[in-house]
Write a structure and sequence with these properties.
By secondary structure, the protein is α+β, with helices and mostly antiparallel strands. It has helices at about 15-20, 25-35, 55-65, and strands spanning about 10-15, 45-50, 50-55. A three-stranded antiparallel beta sheet has the order 1-3-2. The radius of gyration is 13 Å and the shape is globular.
Length: about 80
């Protein structure tokens, strides 16, 4: 199973992301809640959309080391 392209699938549910991380549902929600509580310093990159939590595919790919962030060319 490969992680989807962010253009095709912009965000995943926490359950779907847990499969790619190889962890259980509870651990994935704990990682997302840590991310939200620490303003992104730790945990699984996610966003809150209303009452839902979603894991942006692009952020997950960077977090897992599959992709890199674009380099800032202004410096």
């Amino acid at each position: 199973m490969s992680i989807p392209n962010p253009i095709d699938v912009p965000a995943l549910t926490v359950d779907e992301a847990a499969d790619f991380y190889g962890i259980g549902r509870a651990a994935a929600y704990a990682g997302c809640n840590t991310y939200l509580a620490t303003d992104g310093a730790e945990g699984i990159p996610c966003i809150r959309v209303g009452r839902f939590i979603r894991v942006p595919t692009a952020a997950m790919r960077v977090h897992l080391g599959i992709d890199r962030l674009p380099q800032d060319e202004s410096s």
